[in-house]
Amino acid sequence: MKRLQLEDLSKQLGYSKTLISMVLNGKADQYGISKKTQAIVLDAVSKLDYTPNKFAKALRTGKSNFIGLIVADISNPFYSTIAKNIEGTLFDRGYNLMVCSTDEDEEREKKLIDMMINQQGVDGIILASTFKNADYFNNPRFTKTPLVFIDRILPLFNGNFVVTDNYGGSKEITEALIKKGCKKILCLSITPSYISTIDDRIKGYTDSVEKHNLNLSDEFIVPINFNKIQEDTLSALKKMFFMHPDIDAIYTLNNNLASATLKALKDKSISSYYDKVQLACFDDIELFNLVDKPILSVSQPVDDIGRNATLLTLDIIDGKKENKSMIVLPTSLIVR
Hints:
six-stranded mixed sheet; six-stranded parallel sheet; 16% strand; alpha/beta; elongated; Rossmann fold; single chain
């Protein structure tokens, strides 16, 4: 069945498309359109089941009422929870959300940004960027499309950011491991290691280790390939347990690494370490409440990240915010 268009309404009612549009957009009184005419238009819309085309509306109003969200991996519970919160906050404000994943690929991120701006005409973009520096974003076109960065900071870039205290949270959880008596703490990192969150978490770990003179070499920080988490984690643990059988703690820098570690420790080649090592993770997910092993974790305020990023984006769109904002949210330690 053919979708009823604004032009069809105009022909059937004998009113101009402009007049009908004013009524549908709540501007009839402003332009002196009589109550009788308004009633005729609204009655026809109700009977004919007319639904305004959002993209046609965007051409008239200059706004699409769509916000783009670009993250590294939407399957990651951290990002999916943030996306859900953003979507709920936007829905309450009459906006819709478009979500995409980059898989930590800069070229893919460029294409997604171009698609959102040039093809979809989003009003703003919230993103956890995988870029190493801000060169790409120093472009005049981004003055027209507001950008709000979440989770990650781009060095030397004066932008809008909503992040958590990655350094402080990482230092706190490492200190907690040390207070538990752990001396050989293996840190599983993830690529790309230049991402600010990973860099800050490594610094928090190393500063605590050095503070307590644990004398752990750089080999205790093991990078895991983002695209091969399961196999790389198992391989890394086998190698490190062989070289350092006295490892007493494993600190993973995100929840995907923690899940891979739990699975790897069930492998018969290293399963004897399952009950011997303390596990810690920078992130907190429901899985940790279900496994038969207490996991120390850092909880990030994912709801606050989503809400703050959304409200900041909408304020910029509405002209309520002009200065660049840096919002740093605290983490909390979860002891099981």
